[in-house]
Amino acid sequence: MVMPVSSGGDRDHAAADEGGSEPLLPRKQQQKDADGDDFHDANFAGAVFNLSTTIVGAGIMALPATMKVLGLVPGLVLIVLAALLTDYSIELLVRFSRAVGAKSYGEAMGDAFGAFGRGLLQASVVVNNLGVMVVYMIIIGDVLSGTSSGGVHHHGVIEDWFGPNRWSGRFAILTIMTIGVFTPLACFKHIDSLRYTSALSVALAVVFVVITAGISMIKLARGQIPMPKLFPDVHDWPSIWRLFTAAPVLVTAYICHYNVHPIDNELKDSSQIRPIVRMSLLLCVIVYMTTSFFGFLLFGESILDDVLANFDSNLGIPYSSLYNDAVRVSYVLHLMLVFPIVFHALRLNMDGLLFPSARPLCCDNRRFGALTAALLAVIFIAANFIPNIWDAFQLTGATAAVAVAYIFPAAMALRDRHGIATKGDKLLAVFMIVLAVVANAVAVYSDACS
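RESULT FIELD:
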């Protein structure tokens, strides 16, 4: 199972809320327990930043391209609807966890489907998060050291600033990043310890939004921006099919389920988890909508699948190269600070797979250190030496991500071992499973065709 950051021993349950439901996670008072660990009394703001950072990740760069497929109006509406569906899936997860006093997503799945369900959930989180972090490291290497494709070399930021040298190569930069940034941040045992880096990560995402919006407004005032496409151009079957290609991006835009329990585990008041989830989703909806709107307004039909790639050319305004570098550097720093949040869940779930009966990971320094070093080494090697690893993780990641976000919470509602699901819950659970399967099928087919 997913090993919680809290330790074993006697636990005091928080008082029931007004509806009579018991808290998501068993608690005890802030004190040392038999294993020597203590709890962090995480605050509301820190939890919101941690969950928001889990959500935003690299998705902020993929959503603007969906506006080209869907049009601005349907695209922005679907961003909101995807957030509402995510909120409902997390509500299901929280409710069924409370029903059994589950301390982790894995425990909730284990209650519904036994050891197989628990292991399947943990394996899905491992596959998804491992793939996400390898992709983050690849993006960081591409942006800082440059990349070559089709015989054309795209200069990285460091390469532009200091010229080609032994320290501007991908291997050297990623080695420095891994030793100097990722390793220290990965050594925090409690997710609440990352609240300040998460706040900075969200701020950097806002910096990207502000720069994009500013450039768009300047070009709009100069009459350099044409009227954007408001609705999709649907005239034949291929154009209808293209609409479905936006589904995988929208469905996976708000995935954060694997960090709900660890964040709640460190809250002093368990009843805060629902407002925290909703505040985080609202913050991310605002970031996603403004990024998508201004990104599509700025680049129009020329917008690329990863809008970051559009900031590698002349923007048509003074100091264009300066703005390009500011966007790329702020985004790289954002990904660096997202990395430890995603890594925290990867380590917990990998530990649950390998050592399901061991004491909590945070209470075993040797196991904690060995697992941290091994996972960082695997991510570093995959990002540097395995060709086409990105394509492989696009396939496996799409499958694992939709399972973690929608299929598993919906399956728990349909299984309903404790008779707490309503008829509406089960209908929406079926809808979530169908949507997840369709989105995954489209992603797989698109990858196969490309």
